[in-house]
Write a structure and sequence with these properties.
With 79 residues, the protein is α+β, with helices and mostly antiparallel strands. It is 32% helix and 15% strand. The longest helix has 10 residues, at 66-75. Ferredoxins are iron-sulfur proteins that transfer electrons in a wide variety of metabolic reactions.
């Protein structure tokens, strides 16, 4: 995983990140958006565009955001 969308997206889902992604790697899930790590080019455009600061690089996640990493892995069937 490169970038992970965290809990703030669940209540917002503004989709600004989707609009700026140059490789269309952000997909809508049932309650939030997810970033496909196989397609993402780590450009960071989504981070700058997110109005609720919900997107973090995997290495920068806080402990309370780790469930969102697991949720993204599950969404993309990554072990």
């Amino acid at each position: 995983m490169a970038y992970v969308i965290t809990g703030a997206c669940i209540t917002e889902k503004a989709a600004d990140c989707v609009l700026v992604c140059p490789v269309d790697c952000i997909e809508e899930g049932e309650d939030q958006y997810f970033i496909d790590p196989d397609v993402c080019i780590d450009c960071g455009a989504c981070v700058a565009a997110c109005p609720v600061d919900a997107i973090y690089h995997e290495e920068d996640l806080l402990d309370e955001d780790l469930p969102f990493l697991e949720k993204a892995k599950s969404f993309y069937n990554i072990a």
